[in-house]
Design a protein that fits this description.
The structure is a single chain. By secondary structure, the chain is α/β, with parallel strands linked by helices. The chain folds into four domains: about 5-145, NusB-like (N-utilizing Substance Protein B Homolog, Chain A), CATH 1.10.940; about 150-190; about 200-250; about 250-459, Rossmann fold. It is built from 20 helices and twelve strands. The protein has helices at about 15-30, 35-45, 50-65, 70-75, 90-105, 110-120, 130-140, 145-150, 160-165, 170-180, 180-190, 210-215, 240, 250-260, 280-290, 305-315, 360, 365-385, 405-410, 445, and strands at about 200, 220, 225-230, 245-250, 270-275, 295-300, 320-325, 340-345, 385-395, 420, 440, 450-459.
Length: about 450
């Protein structure tokens, strides 16, 4: 009988549970198009990871996905075939191991050993030798040494160097460079690589910032309704969040909603519209604000499952607010029905790279080109939906010029009944808002997502 029968093998070591959870989450994100934050949260709940294990798993997942393109450049020097010829699950193992070796405080021997064990358990014994050999090559250099090996110097090609060294696709770096000076460009790329803080919103009339502070948060810088969970953790443990009286919402998202709510208008001010409402964070804040003015919000969302998220966000807000499952480009309401309209249009999401680590590698310039007609149609519909004297907030979670001012200019060029107004005064105490009249927030300047707002008044 062969000595390689299962009876005579040494018992196989079980893989580390946290790394196994992280690997399976990464597989769902890279192979099935899952969203890292949603897949990870469910996986950690199902696996009952908490405390230090949860924090370690989060860094494994987010860090690996965030630096994926840079690690691919390193791995390409250590594998004797093109990376696209490797099985995807094997490449995910190698990338996960590379992150531990180069950007985490994990002992090199332990990192390699644990990834070999994980390989045997998840994709088979035959692949473990390759994983061991490649990761040992990776461990022979530091992160900075690998950058010097694979990237051009700053003097040779500054933008390409930054793309590799700061883990952003080159086209994104080029787009950001159009908007920022040299020093600020690096500051932004660095800010994109820092995990975003968990920011809460105390919905007006339902919760207070003081209540959130008592639950362990601290006051945020700019929004009067914002608080930050400094230690991270599960916001759902806070009673106000669990009951819908408060929610999770980036401070930049709060600020653009508040700008719309606070823009001066004359006459009626009770009918508000959120034209692209899902998943409903801004809808809930606007609904709480308009309810205090004895008004109501109409929220429009074309996809039923996202409309259900809007309903969930509105569940604690008093008043007669409506959620319509409709296409915002084809209004079913009469022209000029609303006093204020939010058009937070679908976009590339390049302004939220801190919290969506996989997004930077998924998006392409073609995505922005394809979204442009929809963005213009939605803004045109928003202007048609607002009454004369009312205001529209055109909002994107992207600083890309083709999704921001270019869209606004294109739509306004076709209309003679709408004008762009200076929105900066609607962001009190917020520094570095630029020359206006529109407002672009930035992670490295204000510590928010890179939210864009243009305020338009219909005449």
């Amino acid at each position: 009988m062969s000595d390689r029968t299962p009876r005579n093998r040494e018992p196989q070591k079980a893989p580390d549970k946290v790394r196994q959870v992280a690997f399976r989450v990464i597989r769902q994100v890279t192979s099935e198009g899952g969203y890292a934050n949603l897949v990870l949260n469910k996986a950690m709940r199902d696996s009952r990871l908490a405390g230090r294990d949860a924090a370690f798993c989060t860094e494994l997942v987010h860090g690996t996905l965030r630096w994926q393109g840079t690690y691919d450049a390193f791995l390409a020097r250590c594998v004797d075939r093109p990376l696209n010829e490797l099985d995807p699950e094997l490449l995910d193992i190698l990338t996960l191991g590379t992150h531990q070796l180069l950007r985490m405080r994990v002992d090199s021997y332990a990192a390699v050993n644990e990834m070999v064990t994980l390989t045997r358990a998840e994709i088979g014994h035959k692949r473990s030798g390759l994983v061991n050999a490649v990761l040992r090559k990776i461990s022979q250099r530091t992160f900075d040494q690998w950058i010097d090996t694979v990237a051009p110097s700053i003097e040779e090609n500054r933008l390409l160097h930054l793309a590799v060294a700061k883990a952003h696709p080159t086209w994104e770096v080029e787009a950001f460079a159009q908007l920022l000076g040299d020093d600020e460009l690096e500051d932004l790329l660095d800010a994109d690589n820092e995990p975003a803080r968990v920011t809460l919103v105390a919905r007006p009339g339902l919760a207070t910032v003081d209540e959130l502070i008592e639950a362990g948060a601290s006051r945020a810088k700019f929004s009067p309704y914002a608080a930050v969970l400094q230690s991270g953790g599960d916001p759902g443990r806070i009673a106000a969040v669990a009951t819908g009286r408060a929610g999770v919402q980036d401070e930049g998202s709060q600020l653009v909603a508040l700008a719309l709510a606070n823009a001066p208008i004359e006459g009626s001010d009770t009918e508000w519209l959120d034209l692209c409402a899902g998943p409903g964070g801004k809808s809930a804040l606007l609904a709480a604000l308009v309810e205090k003015r004895d008004g109501a919000l109409t929220a429009v969302e074309p996809l039923e499952h996202r409309a259900e998220l809007v309903r969930s966000n509105l569940r604690a807000i008093p008043g007669e607010h409506k959620v319509l499952v409709e296409d915002g480009t084809k209004p079913t309401w009469p022209e000029g029905s609303f006093d204020r309209v939010l058009a937070d249009v679908p976009c590339s999401g390049l302004g939220a790279l801190r919290r969506r680590p996989e997004a930077r590698w998924r998006r392409t310039p073609e995505d922005i080109e394809e979204l442009r007609p929809l963005q213009e149609d939605l803004l045109d519909s928003a202007i048609t939906s607002v009454r004369p004297g009312g205001v529209v907030a055109y909002v994107t979670c992207s600083p890309h010029p083709d999704e921001t001012r270019a869209v606004v200019d294109a739509v306004l060029a076709k209309r003679d009944d709408a004008t762009l107004e200076d929105a900066r005064e609607l962001f009190p105490d917020v520094p570095e808002l630029g020359d206006g009249p529109d407002v672009q927030l930035w992670p490295h300047r204000q510590g928010t997502d890179a939210m864009y707002l243009a305020l338009i008044r219909r005449s």
